[in-house]
Amino acid sequence: MKFNGFTDKDFDVFTIDGLENRMEAIQQHIRPKLEYLGQYFTPELSTLTGDEMFYHVAKHARRSVNPPDDTWVAFANNKRGYKKHPHFQIGLWNTHLFIWFAMIYEAPHKEEFGKKAEENADEIRDIIPSDYVWSGDHTKPDAVSFSSMSRDEFLSLCQRVQKVKKAELLCGLHLDRETVTELNGDELIQKINNAFETLLPLYKMN
């Protein structure tokens, strides 16, 4: 398969009504591309991190009524799953593509990670670009750009992930659909690769 990037048709999948119809469209249009990106970036991330990485394409298997509003491929150093581990993600909402480093609520070490992030707040500000975004909840499309976040707001995000069971910490890059659809496959892969290299210090903080 040649990867040609994502099209408006891919993003429009998330406007299809009904679980069965939307899942069929995800499987037909988006999943093959996520599989490609999974196979492509697994060796790249293994080299970058120094860990053997495995990719996991979202199956949305537990859904019985509501269709998914986003879908993704995740990378972690565990063959069985990614949710309990620090991981990277590439995925789509209707409005944008996201490239994340993530510590979500299932991760048993997220409290320790939040503490390290709090202690290294100034260093993180130096290494993570201002146009990158932060989120405390992977189930919502919204995120806050680093440029608009005060130091105290960042510290509060780090503290929350230490204290609140459902709190999460995600950092990455959002690319709006107009930008993504103008990129060819090679250009998008380069952007994703650059983002992973930028986010690597957060992974190494574990």
Give the tags.
seven-stranded antiparallel beta sheet, UPF0637 protein BHE18_07000, BirA Bifunctional Protein, domain 2, UPF0637_domain_sf, 206 residues, alpha+beta, UPF0637
Brief account:
The protein has 206 residues and is of the alpha+beta class.
Q: What do these coordinates show?
A:
With 206 residues, the protein is an alpha+beta fold. The chain has a single domain, classed as BirA Bifunctional Protein, domain 2, CATH 3.30.930. The chain is built from 7 helices and 7 strands. Strands 1-2-3-4-7-5-6 form a 7-stranded antiparallel beta sheet. α2 crosses α7. The protein is globular and about 45 Å long. The mean pLDDT is 96.
Structural category: alpha+beta
How much of the sequence is in beta strands?
A: 15-25%
- The whole-angstrom Rg is 17 Å
Strand order across the largest sheet: 1-2-3-4-7-5-6
Looking at this structure, what is the CATH superfamily?
Protein of unknown function DUF1054
Q: Main sheet, how many strands, which sense, barrel?
A: 7 strands, antiparallel
Number of domains: 1
Strand and helix order: HHEEEEHHEEHEHH
Number of strands: 7
CATH architectural category:
2-Layer Sandwich
Q: How would you sum up the global shape? A: globular
- Provide the low-confidence segments as ranges: none
Family: Belongs to the UPF0637 family.
Protein name: UPF0637 protein BHE18_07000
InterPro entries: UPF0637, UPF0637_domain_sf
Pfam families: DUF1054
